[in-house]
Amino acid sequence: MTSDPNFYAHSLPPPRSREDWESLPDHLARVADGDGDELPGASHFAEAFDAAEWGRLLGLWHDLGKYSIPFQNYIRATAGLRDAVHGSEMTGKVDHSTAGAQHAASRGSLGRLIAYCIAGHHAGLPDDEGGEAGLSMRLKKRIEPTDAAPADLLARPLPQPPKLRTTGSRQRQAFAVGFFTRMLFSCLVDADFLATEWFMNTERASQRPGAGATPARLLARLDEHLDKIQSQASDTTVNRHRRQVQATCREKAKLAPGFFSLNVPTGGGKTLASLAFALTHAVEHDLRRVVYAIPFTSIIEQTADTFREALGDDLQSEVLEHHSNLEPDDPQRQSDRSRLAAENFDSPLIVTTNVQLFESLFASRTSRCRKLHRLARSVIILDEAQALPPNLLAPTLAALEELVLNYGVTVLLCTATQPAIEKRDQFPIGLAGVRPIIDEPRTLHQALRRTEVTSVGKLSNEQLVERLRREERCLCIVNSRKHAADLLKLLADPDALHLSAGICAAHRSDVLNEIRLRLKGGSPCRVVSTQVIEAGVDVDFPFVARAAAGLDSVAQAAGRANREGTLLDANGRPRLGQVVVFDYDAKAYPTSRMIEIGAMHFREVTPEHQDDLLSPEAIEAYFGLHYWHQGGDDGHGWDRGREGRSVMRCFGGENGDWPHHQFREAADAYRLIDDAQTPILVPYSERGRELIHELQQMPDEPPPGELRAFDRKAQRYTVAVYDQALIKLLNNQVLLDFHGRYYLANTIAYDPKLGLTFEAVGLDLELLTL
Description:
One of its GO terms (molecular function) is nuclease activity. In the N-terminal section; belongs to the CRISPR-associated nuclease Cas3-HD family. Keywords: Antiviral defense, ATP-binding, Helicase, Hydrolase, Metal-binding, Nuclease, Nucleotide-binding. The protein is α/β, with parallel strands linked by helices. Helices cover about 40% and strands about 10% of the residues. It has 4 domains: about 10-200, no CATH class; about 220-445, P-loop containing nucleotide triphosphate hydrolases (Rossmann fold); about 450-615, Rossmann fold; about 675-770, no CATH class. The strands form 5 sheets. It has a 7-stranded parallel beta sheet, with helices on both faces. The radius of gyration is 28 Å and the shape is globular.
């Protein structure tokens, strides 16, 4: 067996003979440079940021360890197991990634960057110091010799050092080098995955999207759609300003790539205007794709549907949704093609969430990093840019700056309020050189002002409910599920509706559809909601009540009032929608520290801006308190990851020693949201009950692929709970655990209006015998 002169990268199951296996030289060449137009390689991916030679060398060296005799013995012994190679890496039977890393690191500091990528191309980017799994220990590890590797392959020179434009301290420069390493890693792992799939699973590879629609084609279709809307729209003040915003976006799109801001009040048409800017800019500067990032999953489907409607039936498949609430059985939202495209952002128009985008920029896992190289030479739209958490602004803004400086990216800060993340004396980590698309945002604000915001002080639940009863169509937004539930019960209106994260995504979609139907028909419509309704949900109430929160949240709530500017007074003249901000019993309804701080800063700016609490001056005063003063004397307040850990210091340490990075530590520290939640499958609608039945009927040891497929199907019928709530549900004995997945086994515990509740006790016989 060991005398066979051939070296293989991948085997094929019987009855395929060894002559059909993939040779190691062929695999290395495919990962490095691809195989024709249908299979791109790492050099092709890295070319987008002028690093083609780096990508090529990564592809050629990444599997040097497969030139060892033990690995070749292993691949022959396990022929017939489709994923034997990847399995061997995870189980530690044959280490084939350390050899290339050691060879690269022997070339010096630049080679060490390649070593990170090669060492982690299956298990994920390693830390420099991480025990036996860390790169430093891996580079000292005794490995099997790879003497059979061709001498000319081993002797290939390192590429020229990357020409990275950097700003600031040595640590900031080290961050740039670490970011470059992660982008290279993305090129390698995507090319390696695609090349392996191309050889071993031709059917799956054939389903991947080919050359998608160009930005020019998408722009032409968007122009047709906007022209049609404008020709049919009534000649109102709001619509005239929307047309002007779109025209200004197209004009400013001709400017050179970089940072832009689009400061348009809610209801000013910024969603389609920002897309018009992005596609025009992409065509003007030969950029490859548009990525639209949204802070909340609750509105992502609405935005994707808006884009699909704009692009028409034949181009709607070019819109890729990338988030956790997808319904795999919905062919419009997710097909085999789109599922594959989501793995590596292989689409011209992507709608995703801030969590998916930014956590991927700091990720170490191969699955999350595959998409990163696709961001090079793209337009990234950050919807509601002011929603970024203050404690992670330093690494977040540093990553955005890297994308613009070194990867040909344009970033559009799209916001209904004054951009808060631009550089200034009291905010030194802010973004420099942000060009406003709207030259006179104050003038536009006054022209599009459709609401009056009033702070009314503290209201008891009884006082608030009495106020809501006087309105036939009203929206009340509070900061906690418990507060919403208590108000709904006190309201005692059988037709009132409710939205919160306590109801599953499918349930929320149904409630939103009912809200829009009632509002369109002029029917009574009282809604009590948590913040899930705030950002970007297209509803239009004459009256909105908002529990005290940050001014950015108040502005979002105001965007649900008189959205189209169509309210009239008794004399038929236009009038403002009413938004009242009220204080409440914070002890009875505790909330997050961030909401408390935001409400405190709102109260501080209110006295001086009573006349117009949403004016640009009020917004600037608010963010002066909320963002710019949070850094403290050492600025660390803008760089507090999980457990208070610094993300920036994971790159180069205290002194900016750039070859030494803690990639896994950074990924663990950088979390936009606390992900310590457990999904509970709930019996909402017939579909939810069907999913529970499907889970019950699975065999004792279902294949991993079957469980993953089930999780995707079940996502829209789950409610995520924190540990404290999970313990309460377990103590109430309303949960059952099948295959490590909880489902709610008591129908009373899922209220038709409130969703998940905590009063029911015991199991429901009906749900035990589905």
